[in-house]
Design a protein that fits this description.
Structural class: alpha+beta
CATH topology of the largest domain: Transferase(Phosphotransferase), domain 1
Strand order of the largest sheet: 4-5-6-8-7
CATH superfamily of the largest domain: Transferase(Phosphotransferase) domain 1
Distance between the termini: 35 Å
CATH class of the largest domain: Mainly Alpha
Number of strands: 13
Bound molecules: adenosine-5'-diphosphate, magnesium ion
């Protein structure tokens, strides 16, 4: 999906009010009745209809005809707008540029701050896979079911943010986290080649060891990446240093399946090096040989730090269950270890599919955020 930067400039303060009202209403309503939108926004009914019509025209909300009543739901575009507006209000970002990545569960854009410094905006898109097809009978979302794609996308962003911050603060090679809002994360742009694109490297053995060392370093700090593969390792153009990205699936080494996750990470690297660089080593880390720091020791347990950082165990569980469901439904993306030995062709196909590079389409778009005209503070007016 594209971020439509041009339209977003023209959202008026009343339209913004209505959009926020739809977001709020969708916490309890899958389809938010127009009357509720009017009520939350504090605008007259007639006025609301017009405003909502113009938002719908720009795909920020979508009309849904229900058996009981007609109403609206927020679209991804609408949610994107609200998140980007929050980031721009905090002066974290200013303009949107090219899309550089499309995953099944995220979109990646280059954005810039007011000084023109490039950053990466990751928009989580967990609801691309319909919830209904995933789980009918487990009711862990409770009332939130109606807003599940928004809720799950936000949880993923919050979790990724919590991990990225803690990892960065403890000197792990990850992008510098800059800001987070709703389902979005703003981070340092890494000028790098993704490992998956590297056809040949001078000393695969050296890179292999440094990646295995990283897995061990994570584990010593109580963490397992959980998706440690060539898609999530970037090789810095200037230094050749590996940078790790993509953290929504990280787990603690105390997780009941920790060893399985750990072995899968190790296996991904082994398999990739064997296939791509014809490099094999009898040396690789083993989970039960790694001694994790105990709580209270001088060193740190980052899983404990993250747990204390505001991303609760309950939220962690909800997200984990969702990810499990998605995986069980056969939607899992890029984990090389689970493929057969069918190789090259399949690999290439998958790369095409999953990380299709987006060309110059978004180029030359003007910065849009400077002319947003509304000045409403949320949620002051929501009780009116
Ligand atoms: P997904 O969850 O969809 O796999 P990722 O966080 O792995 O999302 O990002 C997808 C792709 O976008 C990466 O493989 C990488 O090519 C690019 N990318 C992501 N973050 C950055 C970054 N900080 N700097 C440069 N490129 C990035
Ligand atoms: Mg990834």
């Amino acid at each position: 999906m594209k971020l439509d930067a041009t339209d977003l400039r023209y959202v008026t303060s009343d339209e913004f009010r209505v959009l926020t009202a739809v977001e709020m209403g969708s916490k309890n309503h899958e389809v938010v009745p127009t009357s509720l939108i009017a009520q939350i926004s504090g605008l007259r009914n007639g006025g609301v209809n017009k405003l909502i019509g113009s938002l719908a025209k720009r795909n920020l909300v979508a009309k849904v005809q229900n058996s009981k009543y007609d109403g609206y739901r927020l679209t991804y575009g609408g949610y994107d707008f609200l998140a980007m507006r929050a980031l721009s209000k905090r002066d974290s970002m200013y303009s949107v540029g090219n899309q550089i990545g499309v995953g099944k569960e995220s979109d990646i854009h280059i954005v810039a701050d007011q000084g023109g410094n490039e950053m990466v905006l990751k928009l989580h898109r967990l609801g691309r896979i319909s919830f209904r097809t995933i789980k009918q009978n487990r009711d862990y979302l409770g009332k939130r079911k109606s807003a599940s794609w928004m809720y799950m996308s936000r949880l993923a962003a919050q979790k990724e943010w919590a991990f990225m911050k803690v990892l960065h603060e403890h000197g792990f090679p990850v992008p510098i986290p800059i800001d987070q809002a709703r389902h979005c994360i703003l981070m340092e742009f890494i000028d790098a080649y993704p490992l998956r694109q590297m056809a040949d490297i001078p000393s695969p053995g050296k890179l292999y060891s440094s990646l295995m060392d990283l897995i061990v370093r994570f584990a010593r700090a109580g963490l397992i990446h959980g998706d440690f593969n060539e898609f999530n390792i970037l090789i810095r153009r200037e230094t050749g240093e590996p940078i790790v990205i993509d953290f929504p699936q990280m787990v603690s080494t105390s997780h009941e399946n920790a060893e399985w996750y750990f072995n899968r990470d190790v296996e991904c690297i082994k398999t990739f090096f064997r296939r791509r660089f014809k490099y094999e080593s009898s040396l690789y880390p083993k989970f039960n040989r790694i001694s994790t720091n105990e709580e209270g020791e001088e060193d740190f347990r980052l899983d404990v730090v993250v747990a204390a950082s505001g991303f609760s165990r309950k939220e962690m569980t909800i997200l984990e269950e969702y990810m499990e469901e998605v995986k069980d439904s056969g939607f899992e993306q890029h984990s090389i270890s689970e493929e057969g030995e069918g190789e090259e062709e399949e690999d290439e196909e998958r790369e095409e599919d999953e990380k299709e590079k987006v060309g110059e389409e978004g180029a030359g778009q003007e910065p849009f955020l400077r002319t947003v005209t509304d000045e409403i503070e949320v949620p002051d007016w929501t009780h009116s």
